[in-house]
Amino acid sequence: MSTADSKNDNESGVGNIKTNILIIGGAYAGLSAVRCLAHHIESIRMDSVYKDVLTSHEINITLVEPRCGLLNILGIPRAIVDTEFARTQYVPFDELEGVQFNRVLSESTASSVRADANAGKGYSLTFVHGKVTYVDEEKARYELVKETGKGREGTIAFDYVVVASGRNRSWPTTPLGYTLDSFLREMGGSKKEIETNDIITVVGAGAVGIEIAGDIKHYAPSKTVNLVHAHKTFPPEPLSREFQDLALDSLVRSGVNVHLNTRIVKELPGGDLQTVDGNIIKSQLNYWCSSHSNNIDFLADSLKKEFVTPKNNVLVNEYMQLLNKAKKLQHFFCIGDIVELPIIKSAGWAMYMGRQVATNLISLMLSNTLVEPFPDLSQMPRGMVLVAGNGEIVSELGGEIELNHKGYSQEYKDYCMGKIRATIGV
Length: 426
What we know:
Blueprint: E1 8-9, E2 15-24, H1 28-44, H2 51-56, E3 59-65, E4 69-71, H3 76-79, H4 83-87, E5 90-92, E6 103-105, E7 123-135, E8 139-144, E9 153-163, E10 167-168, H5 180-195, E11 199-203, H6 207-219, E12 224-228, H7 241-254, E13 257-259, E14 264-267, E15 273-275, E16 280-281, E17 285-288, E18 293-294, H8 301-307, E19 321-323, E20 328-334, H9 347-367, E21 383-387, E22 393-397, E23 400-403, H10 406-411, H11 417-424
Parallel strand pairs: 1-6, 2-3, 2-9, 3-7, 6-7, 9-20, 11-12, 11-17, 12-13
Antiparallel strand pairs: 4-5, 7-8, 8-9, 10-18, 14-15, 15-16, 19-20, 21-22, 22-23
Helix pairs in contact: 1-9
Family: Belongs to the FAD-dependent oxidoreductase family.
GO molecular function: electron-transferring-flavoprotein dehydrogenase activity; flavin adenine dinucleotide binding
Domain FAD/NAD(P)-binding: 20-351
């Protein structure tokens, strides 16, 4: 996109920003919220009841995200072994359809925008290419991304905030990916590691571990691939034993060496792994997929004390507002993987929450009402789709367990990237 009509703020003093709505995190949940907010505002401007409100007051939406594009985390297990595929899993924000930023705060010109992109639509969109370092009930502090050294800092005052900061896992399953080029360098480095090691072990057979083990063996069949899991079945989510057995069988048939009921106590020099019973699993390269952490360290201590559980999940009500037994923050929303809800965390749920909270937020701004609660989970079937061994698709939804379901197999040709972009509208 041409930069002739764009505004990239690279001047020395980034300073303070004032925004109506701050979105922290630009992955599935955050980008869904941005797109839905824009859609609602454009639609409401055509409504005679609210037209005057939005005509006289433009809504400012600010997104803070350390990556300058949509990264499909679902595709990482294949991206680490296939750099050409990796290129398809990262779409720079200025190449998205449906979302156009008219202002960018960045340490580089990695993202360009048209200053008049949203003229006459009733809103403006600002992208801060950085990370939030602190947020309380009124303001956030951020630091711009800089690949070497410390980026410039600033403060954002907001009326409403949506925290959609997601989870972090060990590299490369959570790459930095500040730009498309840096992401491709990371995936190229991961591929080289795989190519130069003959024995590769994945520790932890959650969905991520299963797919990494399966994809490495599928795209590098000459490698010895181990999958180590501390329990007798996997994945750990509340799914049927039939689904678990089908995933296990698929991996074993592909040639993955599966070690169940096996706990690792330490990694030895050279990569070998020592188990709790003293056995040694020969290995050269290890992927640790046995844990994750919610990216909420930036929450003010008062918010952590009041709204974060011992498992580091955020307490919310059915409208995704911060809520505990004694207090609710009407203007403070949290969505995606970080929330305390009895669901299997997924991209689908994250996008759903982004749309839901945008709908409620606009209604709250215009009429001080909330219109869409989270669905009754007792009526929702649980499910999961996995890429297991040999590229096979193992799925369970509503009690239906299948191998290579036709629809899911089609969606996973690009690891759901097309479906995600269509769902969000980008």
